[in-house]
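WARN no homologs supplied; continuing
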Amino acid sequence: MADSKNKLKRKIKRLKASHIPSYSRGLKRIFRESFGKVDNLNPVLDAAIKIPDSYYSAEVISYIAARGTLEGKKEYRKYFRLALKKAGEVPQEWRRAEILEVIAKRMRRAGEKNLGRLFDLVAEIESPRHYYAPMKQTIKAHFSAEKGDEAFEKIKKLEGNRRIKALKIASKLGIEHGMGVREVISRIARTEDAAKILLYLRGLELKPADKSDVDETLKELGVELPPEKGAANVRPRRERIKARVAETRPAQEAVPRAPELKGMERFSLGLYNTYHGSLHAVHTRTVARAAPLCYAYGMKLVLFGFPFENEEEAVDRVSAETNIGKGGAYLKLLKEEGRLIVLPYPDNNILPEVGELIATTSKPGEKKKVDIEKIVEQGSRACLVMGLGRKGLPKRFLKMAEKHVELTGHGIPLETCTVMGVICERLKSLVLR
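OK structure emitted
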């Protein structure tokens, strides 16, 4: 076993420590591949602790904590505290918010119940722009750990707009987790923000009986109920935007119906997210640009590893954040037609939803390189996947994919949106010839 430990150290030493993101990915890969084979994995943890960038140090340590706990090794749970300590040392608030969101998700999946320090760190984030996402995941972690009551009590101690935002999140999540509207009302009825939260709840899709409870409580507080026609005024921002778009831009005029292209329905365009953390502008813009292409060319759009929980959230977030692609109108149509698919990072090169995954890369493997013509000729379903990020697809995916496509014939790397357009047009010309 000492020999295994020494091999582990040699593997770590071979990693390129000068490039911290690559070094961090390498440490996670070594931990994943060595788990269950090497008893003492402390060298990986020690290396993670020594990463000079606190963001990446916290990212790797929290990965180790979550992975080890999910594999049944309860002793790994304690490393979440160390990951949070490192996260608290990240100087830039936006990066600190990003890594706290990641840690919150991992703590929730690992069933971690000691969430006090996580909440305190998220509560310290001052920027409204960066506060929402990590707080939402932190509250989700509380509900998953059956600590919804504790979350409400902590939120009540926050100040100003941060308290209001957190109460809205907790109230909605409480209902989704089966807490019941009356129970949620009892948690917020005596707070100074009760009226605002209840008006927010009134704008959600509630059962008639639940809505009556909300209305009754508002009346008891002396709040005049807005007319039903004006209910959109108290809806979440994303819903207000969608309503405004629907009123001012009829779908028939904004989104021309594309003709059906027979044979194109078996192809999908895949975007593989290689960015860390929460939703960025690059996510929403790229998805918004991909949607009209897939709609026009009769293809599916598949999002791998994006910070969306489902297809509905993808449409909502993109519609709220950008006007590209008719403000998300094309993306909405793809969803309605079942042609928008949100998936986690794949572990297999063939998926039941989209068929075979084929990597697009400027550096194809010699034995894996194929032309698009061959892909069309094989007659089966295929998803051509490109990496969203300057480094393209990760080595793990390139190794997993059995086929690689290079578009230029000269190994010249292309920008993501250019690749999407070339793929769509080339597939169409081959299928319809």
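Strands lie at 267-273, 300-304, 340-343, 350-351, 355-360, 369-370, 382-388, 404-405.
OK
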